[in-house]
Design goal:
heterodimer, A: alpha/beta, Fructose Permease, 7-stranded mixed beta sheet, two-stranded antiparallel sheet, B: 140 residues, 6 helices, 4 strands, globular
Chain lengths: 158, 140
Amino acid sequence: MAVRLARIDDRLIHGQVVLGWVPHVRPDRIVVANDRVAASGWERRFYASCVPPEIKASFFSVEETTRRLQSDLFQHETLLILFESGRDVLTVVDGGVDLREVNVGGLHFRENAVELLPFVYLTEEERSALRELVKRGITLSAQDVPSNAACIINSLVV
Amino acid sequence: MNPTASATKMISAIVVTHGNLAREFIATARNIYGNFSGVHSVSNDGKTPQSLAAELEAIVEAGGPDDSYVILVDFIGGSCGHATLAVERRHRNVHIVSGVNLPMLLAFLNKRTETNFERLPSELASRGRDSIHAIDADQF
């Protein structure tokens, strides 16, 4: 199992991921780690319909993602994992999954969120989840698409 | 029966796109068709799929019980498509057509008063699709 990209993006699978990141990291499989989508038939079908046919897609709850990433199931595959929030990444990391770098690709405006970058708005809850990821030695790289520059935001969330 | 009841039924459109396309589609359609009302534009810029769905829902819920809405979305993948589907699933008076283009929007303006709401989406899809050709200049 090789995680080519772990990304926080509240849009999950969409154009920037399919047209930008997939050709860049060439994953065998996209894993959507999200409790709501895992439990919603129409959302699973919707997101699956956005994935190029040569790439597999899986939709797991955050807890199931934690388990599957540590089983042998994806041993021979490269993965692109999508999370809706830093909190979900933290759950997976605290569950034992080893991630070194997390791409912060899209956290859009919500009530009480403060702008960090045009595509990164942080609520206090989100900031504290990202801060915990930094404490665990993870590099947070803000980058919407591969053709734009990455910005390391570790020092901005602590 | 109240003879004005059917006259007050209105089919509106909501054009939903990435960036400023929706706004510009409507502005351009006004240049061609003349002035009209009942067509809204919504952009996904800076929004989560959930906040985008909430914006669409506010438009739908501001209408009367007899009003219906055709959402013309740029493409069905991505946040525009996700929000659009979420709203359609919660409202019986909402239908979706994807692949919005100018001929499709102009067809909506021409057909909305004369076409049944249930049939309108497939007619608009046909019109949009039929406007797309690889042009062989020798034909002309």
